[in-house]
Amino acid sequence: RGNIYGLLGQNGVGKTTLLKLMSGLLRSEQESCIVDGYHPYKRLPAFLQDIYYLPEEPACPQGTVARFAENNGSFYPTFDKDFFYELLDRFEVQPEKRFRDLSAGQQKKAYVSYALSLNTRILLLDEPSNGMDIPSKTIFRSIVAGQINEERLLVISTHQVRDLENLIDPIIILDRKDVLLHASIEEIAQKVCFINSVEKQKDALYCEETPLGFSMVRENTAGLDTKVNLETLFNAVLIQKEWFKEQFNTMTL
């Protein structure tokens, strides 16, 4: 708890499936998924009232934003109605509007406001910033950063790595049957370094050309203190899967 996990991976590797398993919407064949001491697929009330999963594209409900939140929020003892309306105001979403009359971006902001105001100990967000404009993404980051505490766990599945780069930590990168990387930003920075140079370096684990030269990931044998670039890291992990799995002691699912 007390972390905002970033769940990364290419399309189709199972990020959404994992979130559904964690929330009890799917049942694993091995029945090996345990969350906070519960088997999610049993869907016990004590578990369900303390976890919420927001899919990337929720079904559009009937009625207004306010009615949706107040009707459904009653199932969650920690729902904070005042905070919900505060978030709507920050996102400039009108609570008396019907969902079907909102743009896709406005709907996403309404759902995110609802999800955050539930105050569940476990919150799973699938591509929460998709459809948001730049100011809204800034507001989203600010709100989420202020919500985390030692009692809460957030998992954010995203392709918008740049949008959340200073928010998510630790990082999990999935492959189809593997966890390629599961580490904190600090652990990543200790083992690899991120170098920008006008010349390509032969010992780079990964190298991509940029307008100013090359952006590279190297093994951090010199103990350099460099800022982790999540987008470059993600690309490096996909190219050097076995190296990263060995270095970070990840395992097959």
Q: Separation of termini? A: 22 Å
Structure summary, number of beta strands: 9
Task: List the helices and strands in order.
Answer: EHHEHHHEHEEEHEEEHH
Backbone structural class: alpha/beta
Overall radius of gyration: 20 Å
Strand order of the largest sheet: 2-3-4-1-5-6
Counting DSSP H or I runs of 4 or more residues, the number of helices is 9
CATH topology of the largest domain: Rossmann fold
- Return the average pLDDT rounded to an integer: 93
Give the secondary structure arrangement, pairings included.
Layout: E1 3-8, H1 15-23, H2 45-48, E2 51-54, H3 65-73, H4 81-91, H5 104-117, E3 122-126, H6 134-147, E4 153-157, E5 171-174, E6 179-183, H7 185-191, E7 192-197, E8 206-210, E9 213-219, H8 230-239, H9 241-247
Parallel strand pairs: 1-4, 1-5, 2-3, 3-4
Antiparallel strand pairs: 5-6, 7-9, 8-9
Helix pairs in contact: 4-5
Quick overview of this protein structure:
With 253 residues, this protein is α/β, with parallel strands linked by helices.
